[in-house]
Amino acid sequence: MPIEATPAAPLLPSRTFDHERVANEIKHWVRLTAACNSKCVFCLDAEAQDGRFMPFEDIQTEIRRGREEKDATRLVVSGGEGSIHPRFHDAIRYGKEAGYRWVQTVTNGQKLADRAFFHAAMDAGLDEITFSLHGHTPALHDRLTRTKNGFDNLMKAMMRAVRDGRCVVNVDVCINKQNVEHLEAIVALCARVGVKEFDLLHVIPQGVAWDNRADLFYDPEEHRDALRRVFRLSRSSQFHIWTNRFPVSHLEDMEELIQDPHKMLDEVGGRRTQFRRYLDEGTAIDCRDKERCPHCFIEPFCSALDKHVADHTAARFDVWWVGDPTLLGRGASPPQRPPDPAALPGGARLLGVSSIPADPHGPLYLRADRYTPDGSLVSLAAGSRIVATLPEHLGPLLHIPLLHAGVEVEVHLDLEMCAALQALPSIPSTWILHAPTRATAELSATLDPDWRAFFGALPAGTRAQNLPACLAPGAHLERPLRILDASLFHDDGRRAIEPFVDRHIEQTYRVKSSRCRACPADNVCEGAHIQSIRAHGFRQLVPLTGDTAEVVRRLEITDVSPRLRDGAPPLPASPRVPVPGNEPVPFIDLHAGRRS
């Protein structure tokens, strides 16, 4: 039967990819203060508001660090409330001098209501102002911000900024129980002033928001109509609507509004002192409990990190990935030979490399750029696995007697690879078809085939992995190999935070439709990758039918992350794996409070 290799229909409007590129611009947040002239009832920073003003020399150092270490091009000066710092304008000016192409501030607008202060900010080079407006009337806004005349001052500053025209003006709104039914009125008010870009933030269980949860937390489904009236504006060319921390499952049929998941880098970075303590000492993250976590945007990340640490502690990994084997033990004297399989970290049985080491003495997980039919692969130890990523890999792999050597082949699929498979008379039983995840929604829209059509045309029982069962009908789904990556560790063995966030976003961040609760595989399936959902929508997920036991029997994908909301226990400190040549742990002031 011919194998279909038709592309999956893209769901997102093309300008969503423009939004994605903007969202992925490297940005650097610099907190000028740990103080604020508002007392918002939903403030997630309240615990860090100790009244401190960062010394200007430290501000300069942090601004330079964003350019030199991160190559950031967008600077966000914030707080607390950044504008109350006595050298607010100097910080903007210094950001421009340091080479940032764009400088932005997020503000309550109280200081910018003063004409002279506003013009000084414009003259210093401020490119964008995000005003935090939370009500359509003085009574509502001032009650939520606990700021006298907060609404009047903010509107004065907003109108002045729009009339001035030298900067981009937009508005963020923290959606909560008090204002969700007035969201349309808030947006309409700003639109009359001339603001057409909005960042709609879902209230999260941090800071005093959790203390005030009875007055703030709401069920998005109960307010679906009020939310959708505003969300639909995203389909107008006149408006730019962004969501921030909004529960993904409530955006079905409006997937273009799903926040770019790389936002998680900012969220985790804001709590990196706590994550550092958790990884280094096993100190529990203070907000992690089964009552809070279901309301939190980064709960899937925290659960993925818990699982990664638990798998390491219990030695459940399959692959220790080092990449270039010539870099093994870089920085060590003398250079190290490939480690003995019995000594691989995390219980791994395979050494992951991008080319065959000169002195291999154990099974490999080989992901090479090219393969040649020169027989070199025949020498691989039994139990090895070769990854094929390009169509031209398939021919040589068919002609090398890997089957009798006990070597498996993992074929990474995209449209071209599916077409190449279509030309084969059959797929060997040692081949496993792997659906790769993508770093962006644009890549997913470009490279993904119609998974259901593709697997539906294959013989029943074809080995496959990394997809929910509903997208691989008839396939025998296997658990992907667990890979422990050497790049996730610093030189002293401590686990890196930011690289793990990247790994989670690009590989393990999965979501499900609310319809998935009716699927008998719900408890053994984590859903589809976030970028696939953003590109092709929740509509691709179709609950299975049939007896639960029979459906689960056909699957080997029970590697589901434990969720603290289900009562997962706290974990010990993360095991250490020194990787000579990797970067040292960046300085983090662990005594600076929850945020640094």
Task: Please give a handful of descriptors for the protein shown.
596 residues; alpha/beta; TIM Barrel; 10-stranded parallel sheet; 21 strands; 14% strand; globular
Describe the structure.
This protein is 31% helix and 14% strand. The protein has 596 residues and is an alpha/beta fold. It has two domains: 235 residues, Aldolase class I (TIM Barrel, Alpha-Beta Barrel); 260 residues, no CATH class. The strands form four sheets. The chain has a ten-stranded parallel β-sheet. Helix 3 links the parallel strand 4 and strand 5. The longest helix is centred in the N-terminal third of the chain and has 15 residues. The termini are far apart.
In short:
Helix content is 31%, strand content 14%. With 596 residues, the protein is of the alpha/beta class.
Figure out the total of helices. 21
Number of strand elements: 21
Relative helix content: 25-40%
Uncertain regions: pLDDT < 50 for 5+ in a row?
A: 330-335, 592-596
Strand percentage, roughly? 5-15%
Count of domain modules: 2
Q: Roughly how many Å apart are the termini?
A: 59 Å
Strand order of the largest sheet: 18-10-11-12-13-14-15-16-17-21
Rough outline: globular
Category by helix and strand content:
alpha/beta
